[in-house]
Amino acid sequence: MPDIIQLLPDHVANQIAAGEVVQRPSSVVKELMENAIDAEATIIKLIVREAGKTLIQVIDNGKGMSQTDARLSFERHATSKIKKAEDLFNLHTKGFRGEALASIAAIAHVELRTRQESQQLGSCLKIEGSTLISQENISTPTGTSVAVKNLFYNIPARRNFLKSNTIETRHIVNEFQRVALAHPNIAFSFYHNENEVYNLSTGNLRQRIVAILGKKTNEKLVPIHEITDLVEIKGFVTKPEFAKRKRDEQFFFVNDRFIKNAYLNHAVSSAFENLLSGGHYPTYFLYLTVPTNSIDINIHPTKTEIKFDDEKTLYAILRSAVKHSLGQYNVGPILDFDRDATLDTPYNLKDKNLPNPRVTVNHDFNPFKPEEQKSIQFPYHREKNREWESLYNGLDSANIDFKSETADSEFFSEEKSNSKTYQVHKKYIVSSIKSGIVYINQQLAHQRILYEEFLGNITVKDAMSQQLLFPLELSFNTTDITLIKEIKDELESIGFLFGEISNDTIMVMGMPVNIIESQINGIIENLLEDIKNDIPNTSFSQVDIMAKSLSKSLAIKTGTKLDLKEQEDIVNKLFLCKQPDSSPFGKRTFVTVNIDEIDKKFNN
C-alpha cells in the first residue's frame, strides 16, 4: 500500500497559518500597529480603504530595519523577541511568535519600506502570496511603512466570508481604539477612505479616553488606583448613572495588552451590585500591571486571552479596588449599607452649635371666634367667613356611588363583558372570531405594526415630526457620529430633525410623534448598535435594520395595561399589515384556538 502522509507545500502551510492569525482586516491592523509599537515609534499613522479590503497601511517613525532584517521578517517564526522557551514567560513586547508578517504576506500583496536612522538609504520589498517580487534600495524616512493590498486575493472563499464594509470598519476601529487606549504616550492618527477618523496627540490616560470617546466622557469617570504585591490596578470606571445597555465600552489591559476575561469582568460587575438597573452594564478602562512570570499569554493566536497564576486573589483585589473607589468618590455606599443618608448632618453644619428651636404662641387666639381673627395671618388659614358646615353642603342631594375598592380586584381586572377584546395578564389580547378565539401577543404585534409603518415612512413618504422646545444635545464617540452622518437622511425620513453635528455631539431639533424626549438617546444608541451588528438572521439592508431596531425599541412592552381602545387599535392595525402572522424577527404574533379544540377540553 503506498504512503499517504506527505509534507504540505510552504505556500499552503502559510495560508493555513494565516487563517489563525489573520481572521479579518482588523487582524492585520492589530499586528501591524503592535509591530510599530515594538519598534519604539512615537507617531503611528493608520490608513485604510474600503474597510481594509483594498488597503491597510501603517506608517511609523520607529527604529526601522536593516536590509537583512527586512527580508528575514517575512519568514515564518522569525522574531527578535525570544531566543529560548523561557523567554515566553518574560515578555515585554507585543509580537513574539514571528507569524504575523509571514501570514499576511501569504494572502495579500505587501509592500514594505523601512530605514534605520544610521543608514542613508532604506529598503523596499514587494511580496505577493509569500513570493518575493522585488527588493531594492530607496530613499525613505526613518521608520517603517507596511502597505497591505488586496487582502485574501488568492483565497476568494475567505474574502466572500467578510462582512459588510460597515461591520469590518467597526472591527478595525475597535482594534485601533484598543491599541490607542493602551498607549497614551504615543500619537496616533487614523484615516478611512481619505477621511480623518482620529487624530490623537500624546497625553495622559484620562485625556486619551476623552479624545476617543468624546468630551462628555470626562465627567463620567471615577479614578481607580490600587497597588499590591500581586498587581497594580489603575484606570477608570464610569458612574452608575451612565451605565449602558451594551458591553462595547469595557476595556481590560494587562501589561499594556488588551485582553478579554469574563472572570475579571464579573469582579467589576459585582462591585456595582445594587447600583445598576437591570440590563445595564458598567463602562470601565482598567489597566493591570503584573509580573511577567505570573501570566501566560501564549495560549491564543490573537493573544487576547491570558492565563493568570492566582486568578481568585486577583478577582478579590479588583472587586475591592472598584468598590472602594465608588465609595471614596461618593458614588456608592462604602460601609453601612442600611444607613439612611437623609438623617445625616450636612457637612456645613457638622461643627456648628445650633440654637435651640423656639416656639411662639399667640395667647390671644380663639378658634371659636373666627370673626375676631381677621387681622391675624397664619401660614395655613381658612378663607374668610368659611364655616365648617359649608363643606357638607349638597351632600344630601348628591348622587354619590360609594363603591368598595375590593369590587375592582385583580379577578375582575379585564374589560367589561360588552367589549370585543380582553387583555390577559397585561401580555395578551384575546378576541373572539367565527371559528373560535385568537390570542395576540401585544408586544410582538406592535413590533410588526411599527416595523411596516417605519418601512413605509423611510421608503415611500415622510413621517410626522414634533419640534422640540429646547434642542437636545447628545454625546457620542467619533465612530458613532460617523455612522449617524451616514444614516441621517433615513432618520429624518421617519421624523427626526437634526441641527449641528460635530465630532462628538449632535443636536436633535425634532423627533417622531410617537416617542418622548427621554427615549431619544436610548433609541439612537440601540439603533447604532443594531446597525453595527447587522442584527443576526436579517438582510444586510440598512433601511430594514433601522425599521427593525426602531420597532423593537418603541413597541409596547409586556406588562403594559391597555385600555379597550388601545387593544382594538392593535388588533385592527395588525390585520391590516402585509404579514400580520409574524414579528419583524420571525416570532408568531398570534395563535388561534378553534371551537372544536375548546369542546374537546370539556369532553375529555
Give the arrangement of secondary structure elements.
Elements: H1 10-21, H2 25-38, E1 43-49, E2 55-60, H3 67-72, H4 100-106, E3 109-115, E4 122-128, E5 131-138, E6 143-149, H5 156-160, H6 165-182, E7 187-192, E8 195-200, H7 205-213, E9 221-227, E10 232-238, E11 250-254, E12 257-259, H8 262-271, E13 284-289, E14 295-296, E15 307-308, H9 311-328, E16 421-424, E17 428-433, E18 436-441, H10 442-459, E19 465-475, H11 478-486, H12 488-493, E20 497-501, E21 505-512, H13 520-533, H14 542-554, H15 564-574, E22 590-594, H16 595-603
Parallel strand pairs: 1-7, 11-13
Antiparallel strand pairs: 1-2, 2-6, 3-4, 3-6, 4-5, 7-8, 9-10, 10-13, 11-12, 14-15, 16-17, 17-18, 18-22, 19-21, 20-21
Helix pairs in contact: 1-4, 2-6, 8-9, 10-14, 10-15, 13-14
What would you say this structure looks like, in words?
The strands form 5 sheets. Strands 5-4-3-6-2-1-7-8 form an 8-stranded mixed sheet. A 5-stranded mixed sheet has the order 9-10-13-11-12, sandwiched between helices. The chain starts with 9 loop residues before the first helix and ends with a helix. It has 604 residues and is of the alpha+beta class. The chain has helices at residues 10-21, 25-38, 67-72, 100-106, 156-160, 165-182, 205-213, 262-271, 311-328, 442-459, 478-486, 488-493, 520-533, 542-554, 564-574, 595-603; strands at residues 43-49, 55-60, 109-115, 122-128, 131-138, 143-149, 187-192, 195-200, 221-227, 232-238, 250-254, 257-259, 284-289, 295-296, 307-308, 421-424, 428-433, 436-441, 465-475, 497-501, 505-512, 590-594. The protein has 3 domains: 10-200, Histidine kinase-like ATPase, C-terminal domain (Heat Shock Protein 90), CATH 3.30.565; 211-328, Ribosomal Protein S5, domain 2 (2-Layer Sandwich); 428-590, Ribosomal Protein S8, Chain: A, domain 1 (2-Layer Sandwich), CATH 3.30.1370. The protein has 16 helices and 22 strands. The model is unreliable at 372-384, 398-417 and 535-540 (pLDDT under 50). The longest helix has 18 residues, at 165-182. The chain is globular and about 105 Å long. α8 packs parallel to α9 and α10 packs across α15. Helix content is 30%, strand content 22%.
